[in-house]
Amino acid sequence: MAVLAYRQRDLTKAEQLYLKALKTYETLFGASHPMVGDALTNVAQFYKGTKQNDKAVKYYQRAVDVYTSQFGAVRVLPPLIVASCFLTFRFAESR
After folding, report:
1. What is the spatial distance between Cα 7 and Cα 65, in angstroms, rounded to a whole number?
2. Which residues constitute the domain of residue 57?
3. Cα–Cα distances in Å, from 30 out to 24, 63, 66, 74?
């Protein structure tokens, strides 16, 4: 539903739905469950897409922390690459 709201450019509703999904996963599975990492990544991507870069970085970092705690560096590599590329772009953009 969050994706649909985002595509319809109802950004307030999309943000609420992404954050609600995250809270639900945290409640059901605990803060360090891999599905919480996926939800954190979704929230980060939403914020990146809406150019709220500071918030995106925060959620990407939390996702990387979850993946690292559960799987070590091997599973973290794909989201870490995404986050690193984003951070690099953000740094270049700010110059």
Report:
1. 29
2. 2-94
3. 10, 13, 11, 22
Pinpoint the alpha helices (H) of 1-95: 2-7, 11-29, 34-49, 53-71, 73-94
Is the whole-model pTM more than 0.85?
no
Contact 53, 46 (CB under 8 A): no
Q: Cβ distance 53 to 41 under 8 Å?
A: no
Other beta carbons within 10 angstroms of residue 21's beta carbon come to 18
Of 63, 66, 55, which Cα lies nearest the Cα of 90? 55
Domain count of the fold of the chain: 1
Share of the chain above pLDDT 70, in %: 75
DSSP reduced 3-state for 4? helix
